Structures
1.
Amino acid sequence: MSLADLLDVRPGENAHLVLRRATVLDPVASINAIHDVVIREGTIAALASPGEADADGAEVVEAEGLHAFPAFFDPHVHLRTPGQEHKEDIATGTRAAAAGGYCGVLAMANTAPPVSTASDVVALRNLARVDASVPVGFFATVSRGMLGKELTDMVELREAGAIGFSDDGVPIANANLMRRALQYQHLCGGNLSLHEEDLDLSATGAMHEGAVSAALGLEGIPSISESTMIARDAALARYEGARVHALHVSSSESIHVLCEAKEAGTRITAEVTPHHLCLTDEVVRTLDARRFKMSPPLRSESDRQALIGALRDGTLDCIATDHAPHTLEEKEVPYEQAMDGVTGLETAFAALHTELVLPGVIDLGLLVERMAGGAEPFDLERPTLAPGSEANVVLCDLGAEWTVGEDGYESRSANSWCAGQTLTGRVLMTVAAGQVAFRLRSFSLGVAS
Amino acid sequence: MKHLLSIEQLSREEIEGILDRAESFAEVGRRDIKKVPTLRGRTVVSLFYESSTRTSSSFDLAAKRLSADVVSVKAAGSSVEKGESLKDTVATLSAYDPAAIVIRHPYAGAAQMVAGWTAAAVVNAGDGKHEHPSQALLDVYTLRRKLGSLEGIRIWIVGDVLHSRVARSNLIAFTRMGAEVTVSGPPTLIPRGIEELGCEVSYSLDGIEQAEVVYALRMQKERMSESFVPSLREYAASFQIDTRRLEPRQLLMHPGPVNRGVELSGEAIDSPQSLISEQVAAGLVVRMAILYELLAGAEGAPSGEGEGSKPTPIGTPA
């Protein structure tokens, strides 16, 4: 199903655009050439020979030297509505998504109160139809009130339009409750997105357990607090013939478990965040909680290398930002006391392009593929540039340098993990579900006369 | 040196500079009037978010012996209890234009954050389980007085290394001064990866007889309930430093307060090889030296005051 069919977005004008002489790259559709991308009525009408598409009243964007990719899809963001709108709301969060090149996001349910009833879901969907710049799907919680005790009314929640289920923020500690949810999935459908962590093993840890935590005197969160839970849930999913999605995988031990589970035929998908791909626990030596405190924590260099390897070989299906806005007051405290989470929607592509593609660690095609890989695990159509598809397009200038935060953020919060960094590669324009969702202010467009 | 936030930040030369300064203050302590005018008219704020006897009293006394005005704020009974943030508390105290803020806080990095919020020199008097640099300096001072140099000296740090800021700061300070350090304790209380700080790790006391110095850490009673050790009795059976385990030529240290009969036996504490009282005495002169280096040393000297590097007593008959 297309994004517009299953997710909610503010209605607007369908795009009529010609991206003149864009370098078009969609590895999944085997497209890699210079084309005029013709978008009519919000649909990719044609990939014409460069310079030959008829404008026919459409807005023409001179895109020579610019790249057009399938727009990105993020299955893991926190829009903080309801209850924490001082950090983010649907309007600001989806503006941030659009500015980052995303054509769709899935919002987590750990709000205040959590999204646990059908009326919560309906209210959020109605709000999204007024406020959302890009299509949004809403998770409902697995357990009522996210308390880990009883299941929510999962069938009713699905009927109300919940895209899937997640207690993200806290793990489902009770294995029997987890099993019941997996059994129930056969009735209600919808994937289960799992925050995989054994809180007994994490205890009062504040960062990855290793040489850096030993040096800083911060209590450590061992890698196995994540990997043992993935192993548990993979075993349960396999036993019940159900499917699960592992959120923000961070450690090499977890990759090992995922690899084995996938080889055994378990229906498990997994995501990784840009910050876990770019940073290690070494940066925590700065004790800068605003940029470097999140759950799961930044891990060691060998973990990071394992994540990159798993991104390449497909053990990790997609990149998700875990965009987690927090106020300055919640971050301007000693490291152990600070809230977990960093923002990432506006910087994900540029950061990964700068840190992994430009140095040759991964190629551009792989990044583009994984940035849009978050739709399929939730039964959504992968964004593509194949003619006839709903227009979900991001136009990027891969040579443009910009400093993160210099011009502020679309997000209401400023806890970006790459604040102040100069990145190479910038999103100029985003088309989401057939509508122009974002244009960079300084990116001038020539309209055909 | 603008702040003293960690031992990590200090070179061996800087450590030696502070200790040499402390030596010169030792002489002041032997006078009838134990005061020098160095910091006259300047204010030292001590801000303690955790209970402390030794550290807070010796910093206060050190500042007074340097003739500073001292304001001591304890979290208990202050507006911290009303929910004031660290940042706002520091802003409030900074309005008094203090020359230095001495801070103890239960969380790592607190002193570093404070340094970003105030014009005062900041002294870390313990931040969470991270660092306790003045303790490490006074311990090095005590050993240097006893042994002349730490070069090649073997030091065992025994006990709850995981929860100890003293262990971390001392490990760094001792190795920086040329000593060879082994940390020893039950595996549950030795942090994974500690060896990357340049020490050996031993999960038993086997081999402790090679050490010249045994440094025992405080074993907190609540560690039992968290299953770090099954019982204090079992801990003591394997790791208590007593006169049977301690060879007569070995020196014994402890940061205090001691759990008598847990990490140290009573006889060991009272034995002549125990340096515990010397450590407390060293705390005063070393903390005077720290304040002096920060506030009146080469970089920190206020213009026009014209104090020489040699402290002069006041109140001595002309």
2.
Amino acid sequence: MTDITKDTASTAGSFVSRDTIQLFYRLLAALLICAALSLLSNSFLSVGNILNVLRQASLTFFIASGLTLVVLTAGLDLSVGANVALSACFAGTVIHQTGSPALGVLAGLVCGGIVGLLNGIMVTALRIPSFIATYGMLWVLNGLTYWYMAGDTIHGFPAGFRQIGSGYLLGLPIPVYLLLIFLAIGTLFAQRTIWGQEIYAIGANPVAARLSGIPVAKRLLLVYAVSGTMAGLASIIFLSRLNSAEADIGESLTLPAIAAVLIGGTSLFGGVGTVFGTFVGALILTLVLNGMNLLSVNANWQPLVTGIIVVLAVWLDMKARGRTQ
Amino acid sequence: MPEAAVVSQPNLLQRIPGVAIVLGALIVLFGAIAPGFLSAANLSNVLVQSTILTMLALPMTLIIMTEGLDLSMGAVLTLTSLCVAIVSLATKSMLLGLGAGVLVGAIFGAANGWLVAVLGIPPFVATLGTLGVAQGLSLIVSDGQSVVGIPHSVRDIYSATLLGVPVPIVLALASYAAFHGLLYHTRFGTYIFALGGNREALRYAGLSPSRLLIAVYALGGIMAGVAGLLMTARMNSGHPTAGLGLEFDAIAAVAVGGTSFERGNGWLLGTVLGVIAVGVLRNGLNLISLPSSVQVASVGLLVIAALFLDGLRSRS
């Protein structure tokens, strides 16, 4: 069942699918960037920096992994960054009010999930194009968060809670373990479950998917809810890592998450891509930004570089698939 | 769908422009609950403040008619506003500042069009990428600081009047007239309708849809340049976050104004009424002392509601 992708026909008969080769190129690119950076900067290959890169990449990956499922259905979720901000502020408040980190984690996940569900309802029941529906949601969430916080910062959380984002286990940061867990869950879900395969089918051809009896609306709702919940998870990691929540923390998160998905080879036209590819995409993007940091490039250059990478990634992917219009 | 079969004559929703209902309702609502809303000074204030948005929403209408989108407009406006500030500060010339802003805007617009038309990248991702580029450049050229001390010739544009009418309103009216003439009375305008409705027909007629698309997006950039001058004049400075999110208000105005996102139909006057509706909404919420965050959220809800209604009307 893993062949419900657009280029089934073109890969039939070869040992290795074209997608696998594409993924190999991306891993090679990541290695080349590593090699270049270790030559350019003495501090790149230090254990501390490598762990830092992995931890940064895991934050981008949490948001981008849920987004991958949305993009697989040929949709887009532009509200993820704003969702992280709202969920983090809500979770932070709950921890302060109740003193219970567990309730705070639950609050962040539920808040993110509800926002995702609302996105799904707009796309399925109201039939609003996903990029414009989630773009509207972005501004609704921004407004809500700024109104709720009213310029305040929530800071200072229990030590146990802070371990989630900044703690170590056997020398590795805890977010890296979470990354491995969700990478495994995401890959198994997308590649080895019927629901996962149905998501690919919806992206490849929504009409055919509906005619073959797939409950398209239900799967779309699921996909947007998962994307929101993963944004909620990212908000928890952020909260515990920064030890504070402000209304503006989400503003710089959406573009990198979309970049990671696209660099990872998930097609904007739906039906093609993997969660593992998104992990590689998050890694490449983080390496580039980390490299700029090490070479003391002003942080003002980051949105510019990320923007160019987004466009470049889509273009290269379309060239590789021969899908120019 | 039995209901759709029964309703054969056009229903009320289709005969009265939705935007007129929305605008009327907002005016009645805020006239009743917001003190001072209906005063002449406040209403003229709403109109003057709507001029920058008008200049973005007019070309956004054309872009959306081609089944496109320009998410970079706010960021490009920020950049052109900074260009106006920096160049007019250095040369003491308002016109050179405007020229620099329009040039930078045109380059970004043409680049957007090229990415969409020639490379075939979906518009919302292509312009999301250029949004990042424009935002980054704004931070880089300004080093994250405001550009202050700009010449009086720039600042005065926002406050000056021509025959008793504020200059920003004159500029906005001139822009509307130009776009109206372009869309409804030139061949180029007809081609724009065809870009959204029937692109194949353009090809059969021997025209290049790519070049037309680049021209439409470039027009958006040029207008962002002109709006950049107004923004700099209004703030009496250049600021690296001045236009953040303005593209969303522009998209909101177009959506509320009744331009369809899927069928290549556009209505310029509707867009202008949509701009005023957004302006009235923000102004009214401001008068009843709700923070700007609530204004942002309510514009978001307005868009979602408008698109929902648009979907309903296209199905009925």
